[in-house]
């Protein structure tokens, strides 16, 4: 990712991609004092931009630091960087972190940096996998309790177990890991939330008390309710996957991704999944494409 043309917005300046570097004694690299966002641009405009910028500011606040600029300025910087790179449909990655002024666990007066990168990006999961439903396996790691880690922040440190979990299941040929929480309840995938269509026709999704309440998750809940589909947020035990008729993931990168398999359980992407894919495509202003499972 580092060796390419283009620009990265870096502390207020548009820096050539290859020159957007940090020092090895950056606090964030040693102690995970970084928060980030993942956004998508559709037709040149970033979907739910202000919600993402606000979440970035909130994540920083949770980790005990403040962004170097306002939420409004983050919005404008994101728009500037997609324009500078000529991105029409792509991904946007803002990141804020503690710099290299202080080394040690305590780094009260380190400088807070902000950078925003963007690149053209298609579907997160491969097209073919998407049509059949992706294959998940339960992760070897569990989401921590809210008093064990800052679970409401989109903080770099929380992704250590996500990368380890995803690598572990990828070795066995799976697309992603399904993570349970510390109680053993269904939580989410490594970078997306999870929904189950139960035999009663209702959409069930874990109550987000120890993982990210995704912006896509909330969008899909609204889209489902607008269709008259009831949505239930509750604790879900992994054994309940046996009763699920359809399962899908939601996330900025994943959008609405059908799931075909989790461990011993099998699902067939059906009507509710198709409706949510179509409605999400419509609300993001996508033209219908091969990416659709419909
Ligand atoms: N959970 C995790 C761990 C994630 O990384 C993401 C992606 N940001 C999500 C859920 C989905 O969040 P969103 O819909 O806001 O992208």
UniProtKB/TrEMBL annotation:
Gene3D superfamilies: 3.30.470.10, D-amino Acid Aminotransferase, subunit A, domain 2
EC number, as in UniProt: 2.6.1.42
Catalyses which reaction(s): L-leucine + 2-oxoglutarate = 4-methyl-2-oxopentanoate + L-glutamate; L-valine + 2-oxoglutarate = 3-methyl-2-oxobutanoate + L-glutamate; L-isoleucine + 2-oxoglutarate = (S)-3-methyl-2-oxopentanoate + L-glutamate
Pathway connected to this protein: Amino-acid biosynthesis; L-isoleucine biosynthesis; L-isoleucine from 2-oxobutanoate: step 4/4; Amino-acid biosynthesis; L-valine biosynthesis; L-valine from pyruvate: step 4/4; Amino-acid biosynthesis; L-leucine biosynthesis; L-leucine from 3-methyl-2-oxobutanoate: step 4/4
Superkingdom of origin organism: Bacteria
Gene Ontology CC entries for this record: cytosol
Amino-acid biosynthesis in keyword set: yes
Keywords annotated in UniProt: Amino-acid biosynthesis, Aminotransferase, Branched-chain amino acid biosynthesis, Pyridoxal phosphate, Transferase
Classification via InterPro entries: Aminotrans_IV (IPR001544), Aminotrans_IV_CS (IPR018300), Aminotransferase-like (IPR036038), B_amino_transI (IPR005785), BCAT-like_C (IPR043132), BCAT-like_N (IPR043131), Class-IV_PLP-Dep_Aminotrnsfr (IPR050571)
GO molecular function: branched-chain-amino-acid transaminase activity
Family, as annotated: Belongs to the class-IV pyridoxal-phosphate-dependent aminotransferase family.
Function comment: Acts on leucine, isoleucine and valine.
Name of the protein in question: Branched-chain-amino-acid aminotransferase
Lineage, uppermost ranks: Bacteria, Pseudomonadati, Pseudomonadota, Alphaproteobacteria, Rhodospirillales
């Amino acid at each position: 990712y580092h060796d390419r043309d283009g620009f990265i917005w870096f502390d207020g300046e548009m820096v050539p991609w290859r020159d957007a570097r940090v020092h090895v004694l950056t606090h964030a690299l040693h102690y995970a004092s970084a928060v980030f966002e993942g956004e998508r641009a559709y037709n040149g405009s970033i979907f739910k931009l202000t919600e993402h910028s606000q979440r970035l500011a909130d994540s920083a606040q949770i980790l005990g630091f403040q962004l170097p600029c306002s939420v409004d300025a983050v919005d404008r910087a994101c728009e500037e960087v997609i324009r500078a790179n000529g991105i029409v449909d792509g991904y946007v990655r803002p990141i804020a972190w503690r710099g290299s002024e202080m080394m040690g666990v305590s780094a009260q007066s380190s400088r807070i940096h902000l950078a925003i990168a963007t690149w053209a990006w298609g579907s997160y999961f491969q097209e073919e996998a998407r049509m059949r439903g992706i294959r998940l396996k339960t992760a070897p790691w569990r989401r921590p309790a809210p008093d064990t880690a800052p679970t409401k922040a989109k903080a770099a440190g929380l992704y250590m177990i996500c990368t380890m979990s995803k690598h572990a299941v990828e070795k066995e040929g799976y697309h992603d890991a399904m993570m349970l929480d510390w109680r053993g309840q269904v939580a989410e995938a490594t970078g997306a939330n999870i929904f189950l269509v139960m035999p009663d026709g209702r959409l069930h999704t874990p109550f987000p008390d120890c993982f990210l309440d995704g912006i896509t998750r909330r969008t899909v809940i609204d889209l489902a309710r607008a269709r008259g589909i009831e949505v239930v947020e509750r604790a879900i035990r992994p054994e309940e996957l046996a009763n699920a008729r359809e399962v899908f993931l939601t996330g900025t990168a994943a959008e609405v991704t059908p799931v075909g398999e989790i461990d011993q359980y099998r699902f067939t992407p059906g009507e509710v999944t198709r409706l949510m894919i179509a409605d999400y495509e419509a609300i993001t202003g996508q033209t219908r494409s091969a990416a659709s499972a419909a």
